[in-house]
Design brief:
Layout: E1 3-10, H1 16-26, H2 41-46, E2 53-59, E3 62-68, H3 76-83, E4 88-94, H4 101-112, E5 118-122, H5 131-144, H6 149-152, E6 155-160, E7 165-167, H7 178-187, E8 200-209, E9 213-222, E10 224-226, E11 229-234, E12 239-244, E13 246-251, E14 254-257, E15 260-262, E16 266-270, E17 280-282, E18 300-305, H8 321-332, E19 339-341, E20 354-359, H9 362-374, E21 379-382, E22 385-386, E23 389-391, E24 394-407, H10 408-420, E25 424-431, E26 434-442, H11 443-446, H12 450-456, E27 462-472, E28 483-487, E29 491-492, H13 495-501, E30 505-507, E31 514-515, E32 519-524, E33 530-532, H14 562-568, E34 573-577, E35 582-586, H15 591-599
Parallel strand pairs: 1-3, 1-4, 4-5, 5-6, 28-33
Antiparallel strand pairs: 2-3, 6-7, 8-9, 8-17, 9-16, 10-15, 11-12, 11-17, 13-14, 13-16, 18-20, 18-21, 18-22, 19-20, 21-34, 23-24, 24-26, 24-27, 25-26, 28-32, 29-31, 30-32, 32-35, 34-35
Helix pairs in contact: 3-4, 9-14
């Protein structure tokens, strides 16, 4: 049986998963119309792919292994690994937006590995679509990224992923995705069929099973792999022996247990508890190790602490330091973009014990926190900080390429705000009243900007970014222009008090919300923190006066989610995350403790 291995890569929301679902539905990979490749609850809610997944379809007697990859920059390290295990990629590009930052990132990695992509211009049914312009932009991007002549002579398919249709040329008639599948059979080289050689396979992804433990997704490059067989695992530093206990191949979105699999196939195997990304599984010591797969370094760090607020333990099942540690250790089994320091040097800065967690971005960390709270965990985290490195005596920090699409009327405000955050404009183009502005900006300057951007552009702007590496440290960035509104009492917030306070800033709580001393209930438009009493009711007397019985009107509160909380919190605050609530609180709950901490006194 012939095998083809492909990955689908694109910028976020350009239609990768929709196209993969359509391919499976048309070829028997999905029996239920309501099932999707985005099977995780968070993926369904947010409409984004978080974890790369494997599937396969049968077409004209050929098995096509497909890897659906995430499009968000925070999960970009997954894409890089997947590319090493496939023979070609489908590069999806939106027929309106054209190439975006993540398109550039994934295409660059593909070209460097010598892969010849097939370009799919998707969503051609959109009213504003312009496939000819997008094709030109993609061609220019190929040349810009140093594609060779063969790679630049790419094949193009036009598609409407939502309807499950593909067209060889614009104007063609088509009822399904057959033109795309035929092109895959013609232009994707068959997976290497070195069946007679000694077995070698490389791990490019990890999985976890409560019964089987850590599992590895691997591409077989030569020979035949069998379950219940002794193998040699060649790592970056050492070689060791292991035994494969279970072996699975992919059939649609399901895994099928098999006793053996041949060269070219993608398999899931269990039995080697310490297996890791990039390691080579060999038949014996004489087999040459495959080139190692590098994993992107984290760019952000923050501290995970036990929740010690007055409301601690009210909602969560798992609240102790040991339970949080065990959960983070379990996350490290599969989340290779994450790093955790379980015994950081605490110095005199922190009170309770904490774990230092390093991640790829705010969304990467927020997804972990959201998963943990849904499992019943309670914890609090500090404000995210950018990882600063020193290279040859020069202080460096991560920079990102930021691409913004915004109506021309808002472009001035955006350029001014990003300028204050040390962003440098590297390009600007205008088309039909929409400006596309490109900046190079320190990750530090981008933290906390997303919410401000939505307000500045009245929800009409689109921003996306990708990490481009470490550059020289920029000077101080003053981002926070408002202070916190801090409760000085315990109790229930009342409408009378909130009506007066909302004139001073934006509220995070509503009438009836339980608050405690030191909890942040809103922000103040002026830069200083303000201590307030949100539980203060109206003074009642026997005297009647005009105006005292006027109706109270409250503005809708700014409900905190984990991402919003990470954006708006200050350096002297914690984000308290529980199964039902997200709150911001001061590290020191009482005002006198905060004053002492400001003076540098011990508390």
């Amino acid at each position: 049986m012939e095998i083809r291995n492909i990955a689908i890569i694109a910028h976020v929301d350009h239609g990768k998963t929709t196209l993969t679902d359509a391919l499976m539905k048309q070829n028997g990979g999905l029996q239920d119309e309501n099932i999707s490749m985005d099977s995780n609850a968070l993926e369904k809610e947010r409409g984004i792919t978080i974890y790369s997944k494997n599937t396969s379809i049968m077409y004209k007697g050929t098995k096509i292994n497909i890897v659906d990859t995430p499009g968000h920059a925070d999960f970009g390290s997954e894409v890089e690994r997947v590319l090493r295990a496939v023979d070609s990629v489908l590069l999806l590009v939106d027929a309106v937006e054209g190439p975006m930052p993540q398109t550039r990132f994934v295409l660059k990695k593909s070209l460097e590995l010598g892969i010849k992509p097939i370009v799919v211009i998707n969503k051609i049914d959109k009213p504003a679509s312009d496939p000819h312009r997008v094709h030109e932009e993609v061609l220019n991007l190929f040349f810009e990224l140093g594609a060779n002549e063969e790679q630049a002579n790419f094949e193009t398919i036009y598609a409407i992923g939502r309807q499950g249709k593909a067209f060889r040329k614009l104007g063609d008639e088509s009822e399904d995705l057959s033109p795309l599948l035929d092109m895959l059979l013609t232009h994707v080289p068959p997976a290497s069929l070195q069946g007679e050689s000694k077995m070698s396979a490389q791990v490019f992804n990890l999985g976890y099973d409560n019964f089987l433990g850590r599992m590895a997704v691997a591409r077989i490059y030569s020979g035949e792999i069998s379950s219940a067989k002794e193998v040699v695992v060649k790592g970056e530093k050492d070689n060791r022996k292991g035994k494969i206990t279970k072996l699975f191949t992919f059939e649609g979105i399901n895994r099928k247990e098999v006793s053996s699999a041949t060269a070219g196939d993608i398999v899931l195997l269990a039995g080697i508890p310490d297996i890791y990304i990039g390691e080579t599984i060999c038949e014996d010591e004489s087999v040459e190790q495959l080139p190692h797969i590098a994993i992107d370094e984290p760019t952000l760090s923050l501290n995970f602490l036990v929740n010690d607020s007055p409301f601690a333990g009210k909602e969560g099942k798992y609240v102790t330091s040991r339970q949080i540690k065990e959960r983070l250790e379990k996350e490290l089994e599969i989340n290779v973009g994450l790093k955790v320091d379980f015994s950081p040097d605490q110095g005199d800065k922190m009170g309770p014990s904490f774990f230092k967690v390093y991640g790829r971005g705010e969304l990467h960390i927020a997804i972990l926190l959201e998963n943990m709270r849904r499992e019943g965990f309670e914890m609090q985290v500090s404000q995210p900080e950018v990882i600063i490195k020193e290279e040859n005596g020069i202080k460096t920090e991560p920079y990102e390429e930021l691409v913004i699409d915004v109506p021309m009327e808002f472009s001035g405000t955006v350029i001014e705000k990003i300028g204050k955050r040390r962003g440098i404009m590297s390009g600007m183009a205008e088309k039909e009243g929409i400006a596309r502005i490109v900046f190079d900006i320190p990750t530090r300057g981008l933290l906390g900007y997303r919410g401000e951007f939505i307000i500045d552009t009245k929800g009409e702007g689109i921003m996306s970014s990708r990490v481009i590496g470490f550059k020289k440290y920029a000077d101080e960035i003053k981002k926070r222009e408002y202070g916190s509104m801090v409760s000085i009492v315990h109790g229930k917030a009342v409408a009378f008090a909130l009506a007066n306070l909302q004139e001073r800033g934006i509220m995070y709580v509503e009438h009836g919300t339980e608050v405690y001393e030191g909890m942040v209930i809103g922000n103040v438009l002026k830069g200083d923190d303000m201590s307030v009493n949100p539980t203060k009711g109206k003074q009642l007397t026997n005297m009647r006066a005009s105006g005292t019985d006027d109706a109270i009107y409250l503005n809708p509160p700014f409900i905190l989610s984990i991402e919003r909380g990470l954006e708006v919190m200050n350096g002297d605050e914690y984000l308290e995350v529980t199964p039902k609530s997200v709150r911001i609180r001061k590290k020191y709950l009482t005002e006198i403790d905060r004053v002492r901490a400001g003076r540098g006194k011990k508390i």
